[in-house]
Automatic annotation (TrEMBL):
Protein name: Acetylornithine aminotransferase
Further comment: May also have succinyldiaminopimelate aminotransferase activity, thus carrying out the corresponding step in lysine biosynthesis.
Principal EC category: transferase
Needed cofactors: pyridoxal 5'-phosphate
InterPro entries: AcOrn/SuccOrn_fam, Aminotrans_3, Aminotrans_3_PPA_site, Class-III_PLP-dep_AT, PyrdxlP-dep_Trfase, PyrdxlP-dep_Trfase_major, PyrdxlP-dep_Trfase_small
Assembly mode: Homodimer.
Gene: argD
Amino acid sequence: MEKQEETAQENEELFPTYKRWELTFQKAEDTTITDTNGNRYQDFMAGIGVVNLGHGHPAVVQAVEKQLHEGWHASNFFHYSQQEEAAHLLTSHSCGDLVFFANSGAEANEAAIKLARKHTSRKKIISFVQSFHGRTFGSMAATGQTAVQEGFGPMPEGFVRLPFNDVNELEKAIDEDTAAVIMEIVQGEGGVRPADEKFVKAVQEQVEKNGALLICDEIQTGIGRTGTFFAHEQRGIEPDIITSAKGLGNGFPVGAMIGKQFLKESFGPGSHGTTFGGNPLAMAAVRATLQTLTEEKWIEAAAEKGERFLNELNRVLRPLPVVEDVRGVGMMAGVELTEASAPAIKALREKGMLVIGAGPNVIRMLPPFTMKEETLVKGVHDIKETLQSIQS
Ligand SMILES: Cc1ncc(COP(=O)(O)O)c(C=O)c1O
């Protein structure tokens, strides 16, 4: 890697909501990002779990380009065939029957929380400690990380956050005022923490017993990331509502809430809406992404590559004293260290490998499914070298 010639400065005209790296984006292609100094990086984080098919997959680019010339926006008063086709692809790949398209993950969760309350006429929304559901008021209140809520109070009423993977606490808290339980099958931002199979089953049982709804937040885990279309399929449950975003448009901003047929009447005309959600450009990206994932068998590839990647991470990194745990599902992996992961993440970036943190001690990887096996293996060895050099 060449030494960086220029250092990106903090911009004076942007709210500093992100602690930006000293890198300025130039271009991205498949699994590589190039900065304005000509340095190339292997993107092991896929733009935070977004470009599952790699940056600029030709099928998605062509579909968006075609739509660009045919019209971007007319409003949701029109029937959009593009939206109906995208909805059909989502319902045919899930246990859901109806789709509401939004522009982001947080918006999809916001829709899910509103729908659950409206349908049940109940207040309580149960979520779990260390979960992440977004930064709008409803999704922020559901998020199980106090740092996300700090300074923005008061939170909306009725949100209860329980310890993750703890069936007893759930049994105590769920009651006849519970509208929904919202959960990630693998907590992403919270440290790549899979939910126990027993716990997931117990959540579904308790929800059914108490007449509440189950919302699976599949914003990070969905669209093949964990080796099946949605992660909950591997736990043998059927949520009432599924939320999706990130990989859904392979980088085009779009979110979706998928719900069961019996919820239809609760989201009638005037109940919820969005100006941009489901616009033809986003829908072109969704259709091309979902069709390509299926036709080119990328989800199967994610399952197989992901298993080999996790095995290699385990084999090479577990023996290191600084490594506390290696965990993951499919192409979603976390290496938990006995110390803060930020110095290793920075050192890896300087080596040309982009990874991201998840909680204070975890190195998180969400590579595009198109990443070559040899690149994945090299990444594992780069992590080993980096951890060893930081330790010495
Ligand atoms: C599980 C989960 N839910 C919700 C969100 C929020 O999505 P967005 O940033 O698109 O609003 C994220 C984003 O990281 C996420 O990982």
